[in-house]
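Postdoc handover notes: sequence design on the structure in folder B. Input tokens:
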């Protein structure tokens, strides 16, 4: 288990209370008085520009960068992972010397004590899990690098496509493809798996010629280390505060994963999807409703806690706006961490607002894959979030795509978009009379 930084116990308690108070709110007289007193004090604020941040993992500090800006009296920040920028536009100062940063759409926060506006020490908190999730966090202004910079040159090059096998603690394995691009010592890349990708990884080759890359999106924290010998690679992977895996690979430009269109399918005897789940107004919705009759329907199995799902939603939202008048609908089935409808509704509505999503979302249940599969018994399983189901105008399932290759995968993302558009154009082009349904 991770040890938190050597903060005073009273400070740690105060930070946790900050999250609870600001999240829940208080309508009592004491709370009003406290708020008025706080307004009379001046918050330390944050220096604008680049910050270097770290969260503690068993594999060492996992670094990422923040770019802080101020517009009027309001602060915002962006998490930097390679080409990616994740907007954080909810930054509060519950006390003059403390800050609470809400992490994108997730039920997660960075909270800490601010020193002279140029240093933060505190914790990364994720809510909604079975066990409390708190990880040590630090940030320092003005350090414009991720890993400690190395001035010397290197002859080792991790550029290329790698056929990779990950091994979990229990000995089970799963296949992956690693893709990296190295310029000097700087490295960008990602890993693809049959259930999704590890998004934008950024790092470098250190002074020992080891590969070190990381990513932090607010809900997930990934740290990878590896060494290369000829065309073989051996590495370690830390995910958050507890997951540890080893991995090895060989350079292979022809590396492939299982066909994403064949991993999830309808059980024998089924040709249609059927469900009834509440929308955000609490009304039960089915595919037989008027909104979906005689239309091509895309069913998106997803969760607001899932960054790969957010990548897919960022793609689907503008696509839907452009094509919604062509006899096509999308319906999102949200599987959330909380079984409570009202709590799930808050998370879903926040996601809809952030991505300006015009299609309908239903609360389908909790995100446990076995439980999710029970809600859709016609599927062989729910293997991945997201999973996308293509349904034609007659209501028949024509294709099921497991996982999602997001923009961090480069050419794979472009291939996905091409295949997606071809499939949708084919289905939209099939003009079926109402009587055929």
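Designed sequence:
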């Amino acid at each position: 288990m991770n040890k938190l930084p050597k903060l005073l116990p009273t400070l740690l308690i105060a930070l946790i209370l900050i999250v609870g108070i600001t999240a829940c709110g208080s309508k009592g007289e004491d709370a009003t008085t406290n708020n008025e007193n706080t307004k009379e004090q001046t918050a330390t604020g944050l220096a604008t520009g680049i910050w270097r941040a770290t969260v503690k993992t068993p594999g060492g500090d996992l670094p990422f960068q923040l770019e802080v800006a101020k517009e009027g009296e309001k602060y915002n920040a962006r998490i930097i992972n390679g080409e990616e920028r994740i907007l954080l536009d909810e930054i509060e100062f519950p006390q003059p010397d403390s800050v609470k940063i809400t992490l994108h759409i997730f039920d997660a926060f960075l909270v800490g004590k601010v020193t002279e506006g140029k240093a933060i020490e505190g914790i990364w908190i994720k809510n909604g899990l079975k066990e409390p999730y708190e990880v040590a966090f630090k940030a320092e202004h003005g350090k414009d690098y991720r890993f400690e910079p190395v001035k010397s040159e290197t002859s080792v090059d991790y550029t290329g496509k790698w056929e990779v096998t990950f091994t979990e603690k229990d000995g089970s394995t799963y296949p992956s493809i690693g893709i990296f691009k190295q310029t000097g010592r700087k490295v960008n890349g990602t890993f693809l798996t049959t259930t999704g990708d590890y998004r934008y990884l950024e790092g470098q080759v250190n002074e020992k010629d080891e590969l070190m890359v990381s990513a932090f999106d607010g809900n997930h924290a990934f740290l990878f280390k590896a060494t290369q010998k000829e065309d073989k690679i051996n590495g370690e992977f830390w995910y958050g505060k507890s997951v540890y895996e080893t991995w090895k690979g060989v350079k292979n430009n022809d590396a492939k994963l299982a066909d994403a269109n064949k991993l999830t399918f309808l059980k024998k005897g089924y040709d249609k999807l059927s469900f009834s789940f509440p929308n955000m107004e609490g009304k039960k919705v089915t595919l037989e409703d008027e909104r979906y009759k005689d239309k091509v329907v895309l069913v998106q199995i997803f969760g607001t806690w899932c960054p790969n799902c957010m990548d897919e939603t960022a793609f689907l939202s503008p696509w839907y706006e452009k094509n919604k008048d062509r006899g096509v609908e999308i319906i999102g089935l949200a599987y959330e961490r909380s079984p409570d409808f009202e709590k799930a509704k808050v998370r879903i509505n926040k996601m809809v607002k952030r991505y300006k999503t015009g299609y309908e979302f239903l609360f389908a249940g909790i995100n446990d894959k076995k439980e999710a599969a029970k809600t859709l018994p016609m599927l062989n399983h729910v293997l991945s979030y997201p999973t996308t189901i293509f349904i034609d105008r007659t209501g028949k399932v024509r294709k099921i795509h497991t996982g999602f290759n997001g923009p961090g995968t480069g050419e794979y993302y472009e291939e996905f978009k091409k295949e997606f558009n071809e499939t949708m154009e084919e289905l939209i082009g099939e003009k079926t009379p109402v009587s055929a349904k």
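Context for whoever picks this up: Confidence is low (pLDDT under 50) at residues 1-11, 19-40. Don't rerun without checking with the PI first.
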